């Protein structure tokens, strides 16, 4: 099957102008917003999405934070010669914001605190297959 040239992301809850600034940065870097929806995520969706983390001690605090406000769900594409999944992962930086570098979205917009790694501003799919699975989950229609 031909690989789809798109990826999935969501901006985690926080100030609206911070979410807008991140979208502007994504566009400035070369992404096109194909679809955008603002929504409060629910526990059923989070248990599915974070199935690999449901038994971890940080799952409940992470879910409480993610349900505390609106997330902005995004389908993103970019120029044909780039892999959107890898391009976005490089742009956001590592899971733990403080381990990234200035200019990476998680470093610039995430929390630099040892106990709140999950306040890392943005989720982005790790592979193209994961992106398609997540798009089907978060945008069923
Ligand atoms: P994401 O899937 O959100 O883009 P990732 O692929 O870099 O992040 P995963 O291992 O898939 O990392 O973790 C998913 C999310 O779980 C992370 O974004 C973070 O919010 C949270 N997380 C992962 N590990 C920890 C941890 N040790 N402590 C707190 N939160 C964590
Ligand atoms: Mg992941």
Describe the structure in your own words.
The structure is a single chain. The chain is α+β, with helices and mostly antiparallel strands. The protein has a single domain (7-138), classed as Alpha-Beta Plaits. Helices cover 38% and strands 16% of the residues. It is built from six helices and four strands, in the order βαβααβααβα. A four-stranded antiparallel sheet has the order 2-3-1-4. It is globular, with a radius of gyration of 14 Å. Residues 53, 58, 62, 95, 117-118, 120, 123-124, 126 line the site of adenosine-5'-triphosphate.
Gist?
By secondary structure, the chain is of the alpha+beta class. Helix content is 38%, strand content 16%. It has helices spanning 16-29, 43-49, 59-66, 84-92, 105-109, 128-138; strands spanning 7-11, 32-39, 71-77, 122-124.
Low-confidence segments = none
Strand line-up in the sheet with most strands: 2-3-1-4
Output the CATH class name. Answer: Alpha Beta
Strand residues, percent:
15-25%
Distance between the ends: 22 Å
CATH fold description:
Alpha-Beta Plaits
What percent of residues adopt helix (DSSP H or I)?
Answer: 25-40%
Mean pLDDT: 95
Q: Tell me about the largest β-sheet.
A: 4 strands, antiparallel
What Rg, in angstroms, do the CA atoms define? 14 Å
Number of domains: 1
Question: Which descriptor suits the 3D outline?
Answer: globular
- Distinct small-molecule ligands in the complex: adenosine-5'-triphosphate, magnesium ion
Helices and strands, in order, run as EHEHHEHHEH
Architecture (CATH level 2) name? 2-Layer Sandwich
Going by helix content, strand content and strand pairing, the class is alpha+beta
Number of helices: 6
